[in-house]
Design a protein that fits this description.
Elements (H helix, E strand, L loop, with lengths): L2 E2 L6 H35 L2 H16 L4 E10 L3 H8 L8 H4 L4 E5 L2 E8 L4 E13 L5 E9 L2 E13 L2 E10 L8 H17 L3 E10 L1
Antiparallel strand pairs: 1-3, 2-8, 2-9, 3-4, 4-5, 5-6, 6-7, 7-8
Helix pairs in contact: 1-2, 1-5
Protein name: SRPBCC family protein
Keywords: Membrane, Plasmid, Transmembrane, Transmembrane helix
Organism: Halobacterium sp. NMX12-1
């Protein structure tokens, strides 16, 4: 049975996440303004009916769930392997700062950790649950898999392979979304990459390389 707990969140990472969300709201309004501008432009050069057709088409295009994010990230840190593994299977995995950083409540339990997030002035909420599995690979590396659901539905999977190399700990993270998103989220996803890197830096990880993809 999950219970609410006072989980300590890395303050520097939380600060980055909050800064991103303030600016992300502005970006969302820019996307809306572009769509409205295209509608008005169609109305000016044509008439109301073609403009309505264009407007409906744009709404369908930007909201239709067609994109499925995936990718890889390589991290490097001075922390030892055991500490990194503990961080990834703990209540605040480094790669999920955008989730636990804005959570109203973090509940821990035998079945995993749940982040409860409210939005639209508290009228709606999402419960994101993270379940972890840990194993040792054939190359003596440690692998941590994070399986994430949102309101009971598959949301994403992260797999982190942790190993020691040249006196440092290297973490290879592979992630894939289990949900599709609309094109309206593409600018936000691209814009968020910089802040994701900043949250990792704030937690003591150097981002060596990142490869993000948006498949159909």
């Amino acid at each position: 049975m999950p219970s609410a707990s006072d989980v300590e969140r890395p303050a520097a990472a939380v600060s980055v996440v909050r800064r991103y969300h303030r600016r992300e709201r502005l970006l969302s309004w820019v996307v809306v303004a572009v769509v409205v501008g295209l509608f008005v432009g169609a109305y000016v050069v044509a008439s109301l009916v073609p403009a309505v057709v264009v407007g409906v088409g744009l709404l369908v295009l930007v909201r239709a769930p067609v994109l499925r994010p995936s990718g890889t990230v390589r991290l490097r840190t001075e922390a030892d392997v055991a500490s990194v593994v503990d961080a990834f299977r703990g209540p605040t995995p480094p790669v999920l700062a955008f989730q636990w950083g804005i959570a109203d409540e973090i509940a821990t339990g035998d079945d995993g950790v749940t982040y409860r997030v409210s939005y639209l002035f508290g009228s709606r909420s999402t419960a994101m649950t993270v379940r972890t599995r840990t194993e040792t690979t054939s190359a003596d590396a440690r692998r941590v898999e994070l399986e994430i659901t949102a309101n009971g539905r598959p949301w994403a999977t992260y797999t982190a392979t942790v190993r020691r190399e040249d006196g440092q700990t290297v973490v290879d993270v592979e992630y894939r979304s289990d949900r599709r998103f609309g094109l309206r989220r593409l600018p936000q996803q691209r814009y968020a990459e910089r802040y994701r890197n900043e949250t990792l830096t704030a937690q003591g990880y150097e981002v060596v390389e990142r490869d993000s993809q948006f498949g159909f």
